[in-house]
Specification:
By secondary structure, the protein is α+β, with helices and mostly antiparallel strands. It has one domain. The protein has one helix and two strands; from the N terminus they run αββ. A two-stranded antiparallel ribbon has the order 1-2. A hairpin with a 6-residue loop joins β1 and β2. The longest helix is centred in the first third of the chain and has 6 residues. The protein is elongated. The N and C termini lie far apart (about 40 Å). Bound molecules: zinc ion. The site of zinc ion has 8 residues, from loops.
C-alpha cells in the first residue's frame, strides 16, 4: 500500500535533502541554544546540535 504523496517529488526539497518527508523525521529534545527540536540527524536551527 502506497502512501499518498501530498507534495510532488519534483518540488519536494525536504525529501530530496533528507530522503523522507518532514513529518517522518524523528525529533528529539530541544536545542538549549536555539530552542528548536533537534532531529534524528542531530541538526537544529543553529547547527550546534545541543553541544
Ligand atoms: Zn540549536
Amino acid at each position: 500500500m502506497e502512501k499518498k504523496r501530498i507534495i510532488p517529488i519534483e518540488i519536494d526539497d525536504h525529501f530530496k535533502l533528507f530522503g523522507k518527508e518532514a513529518w517522518e523525521v524523528v525529533y528529539g529534545e530541544k536545542c538549549p541554544v536555539c530552542n528548536v527540536r533537534i532531529d534524528e540527524y542531530g541538526f537544529c536551527s543553529c547547527g550546534s546540535g545541543g553541544d
